[in-house]
Structures are given as C-alpha cells and as structure tokens.
Amino acid sequence: MRYYLLTLGCPKNTVDSEGMAMLLGQAGYQGAASPDDADILLVNTCGFLTAAEAESLAALRDLARQKRPGQLLIAAGCMAQRAGQRIIQEVPEVDGLLGTRRWMEVVPFVQELRRQNGRGERLFSRYALLGDPEQPHVTATPRPPVSAGSAYLKISDGCNAPCAFCAIPLFKGRLRSRPQAAIVAEAQALVAQGAQEIILIAQDTTDYGRDLGQADGLPALILAILAGVPDLRWLRLMYAYPGHISPRLIEVMASDPRICHYLDIPLQHGDPAVLRRMRRPSNTAQVIETLAQMRAAMPDIALRSTFIVGYPGETEQEFANLLAFLETVQFDKVGVFPFSPEPGTPAYDLPGQIPEEVKRQRYQRVMAVQQRISLARNQAQVGRELDILVEGHGELNDRRAGERKRRVSLGRSYRDAPEIDGLVILPAALPIGQMVRARITGALEYDLLAETVDGSQESGGRRQKVGGSRATS
Predict the structure, then answer these.
(1) Deepest of 77, 220, 437, 443, by most Cβ within 10 A of its Cβ?
(2) Is residue 346 part of a domain?
(3) What is the pTM of this model?
C-alpha cells in the first residue's frame, strides 16, 4: 500500500507529518510522489486563518476530483480538528478525519477505514479519532527524516496565551509540554541521521514546562539538549512570547556557541492600546528593555518579529506608533499580516473593523519602512565570515557573461530560519546539507551574497559565531 501526504501550514504541522510518515513506513506503507500512485491520500490541513482553511479545502477538493474507487482521502491536522463538519459538508468525498492530538494513531485509523471501505460501508468512524484537545499528546515522537541538514523538533503543543485574535487554543487546547528526556532522545536521533541544525518549535517555546511545574523550563531544556547531543552544530529557538524571555534564558543563549544568536519574538503590534485590545503584553518599554538586554549579551543577535495591521479599532495614530516602534527597535526582519477575523475568537466581531483597502495600505507602509531597516541590517554583515548551511541550488543571470545563467548554491547563516527568512547566495554548486565558511560580499533587502573562504569548503569543528530573516506577508 502506498500513501501520498500533503502538508499545509506551519513547521509544527511539518513535524506531525514527518511523524505520520515514519509510523506509516514502520507499518509497511510506502510513500508516493504523486496522488495517482497512492492508495491513501492524506492532507495535513491548516486551520489557523480563514485563508488557510480555504487553501486546505481547495487541496482536498483537488484530490477528491482525482480520487478513484478504492482510494481513501483523509483530512488530518488543525482544520480537521477545528472544522471537521465543514470539511465533510464541502468535500463529501473525504473518508476520515484525524485531529491534531491523534495523528500518532494514523496506522490503526487507516486500517479501520480500509476495512470499512472494503465492505462498502459509509465511513461513520471519520468522527471517531478527532480526539479531545485537552488529551495529552504522544510523548515519544518517531524520528522524522532530516532534509538538507536541518530538522524541526516540537517541544510542546497547545497554548495558554489569551490572544483575542488567535484560534489556536480553540482546537489545540492548553499547553502540553513533552517530557525533557523524550525531547533529548529525539534530538540525539536527529543528529545521528545527519541533522546539523535543530529548530525548537511550539506555539510558545518560552512557556515550555509551565504545565510540568517549571516556571522557566526552556533554559534547562536547552542545556539538557546541548549536554545530550555534543555533536549538534546549531540549536535555534522560535516563537518566544515577549513576557517570557527571562534573564536566565538570555544567559543560556549567550553561553554556548552552538545556540544560534537568533530569536523570533511575535509582538503583533507596537502601540499599547492596540496590544491591550489584542490581550497581549502591552508594556512596550519593557519589551524594548528586554531586547536591549539581549543585544548587550549577544551583540550579533538577529531579532525577528511579526505584526498585525488593521486590527479592529486601530487608529491612524496607533498605526503611526507601530511605525515609530519599528524605527526604535530596528528588527533584522519582520513579518506583516493584515488582520483576519477568525470565527470563535473574541476579536471576530469587535467594533471598529478596518476596511480591507486600509489594511492593504498599512501593510505596504509597514513593509516600506521595514525593507529599509532590513537592508541596513544586512549591509552591516558585509565583510563578516559566517558558517552557511547549504540547502539547495539555483541559477542567476550573470551580467558579466552576457546574462548567461550562473549556477549558485542557496544557504542560510545562523541569522536566518528556514522558509521565513532570507538566503545566502554562494557561487558554484556546493553539496546540499554541508556547512561551509563564507565571507559576506553583498546585501539585498532580504538576502546576502557571499563567497566561500579560500581553502575551506567544509567548516570543521565548532566556531565562535561572528554574528535576519525575510520580511514576509
């Protein structure tokens, strides 16, 4: 039996998909590159935003149109958890739903669906494995494959934050931290498979361990990973809640060169009144002080954040305060999102909804400010030597050679997280998954240009870093 697995959404979905693929493989199922070659069609859906739900439904409809007799179509993940009834109503060809906390039961679920399908029955059990969002999730994630030397490692699921605009707690439930020993064991397995970079992810990594009675559990987890995985080259942290960045975390991040001097801190706005309406930490002066402490401890740190424009009631003055905040803080890169009203959230029907055209204009104004800042931050990297993790190849037009295509390698420095941040462009085709030493020779708004250091393709050992992230919509 062969399965086709399509993953939509964030890196946390990627981790769950890798776990499902591993479990299916252990049970004798083989992956297929095309839906036409598969007996089981599996879509790990995203339900974070209305636009993400539309994308998930479109993917399911596309597979439903191609579905042949005997093929199974399964919707897994966030939208299956949040809006399973809508999936069944709009894509009746879907045979089963598998919720966010039950993906580890994918093998018995597929087996049950196959049995029912073989008997020609309607698959009423599609509701059976949605799962309770409060149910503790699996404590020993199967080892996912490593791609291009980098791997995500999910340390918790769910979220305790009360953000008024966010639907995640509705279908993910409250925070559930994985045991430290299980996380360290998975990190060891990932490095044994060739991972040079491990990226810790969660809805809020800085809240790790709070449900286990640990008030500041992330620093201890980081130290345990570093002690248990001495051959790890890079450890990257994502999704830090602004009020949870402790002095101890800053101290630990600065203490070991294997920890990337990089942090993604989704702040969502820079005006205190808007932040209060968002039910987010609103002490912007404290945020500025925390960022200053991080830069004092790690002068080369790359800081990234995300912001929402057009939140209900956002006045022109409040928006101007956001622009001023960006000028003050000088993030390396920023992601910007127009507000999307999500059903079931407190912000869905707040008064003062902003017209879409105003949202678009404010998005463009924020991006214009941030692109200038990002370019200046990138230009400050010119002349530095950095370790670069090679992830792929591409071609560029070479003006010096009459616009002839020139082969290049695409990689990332410690300053760039995968998928959301910028690239480092290197001449020639270098081995994918290899880490090389390079000197930065040029800068664009999002990306850097570099050349490998003479006499060194593979950067051996661990180096003290001399050290941002693609501004996204």
Answers:
(1) 77
(2) yes
(3) 0.81
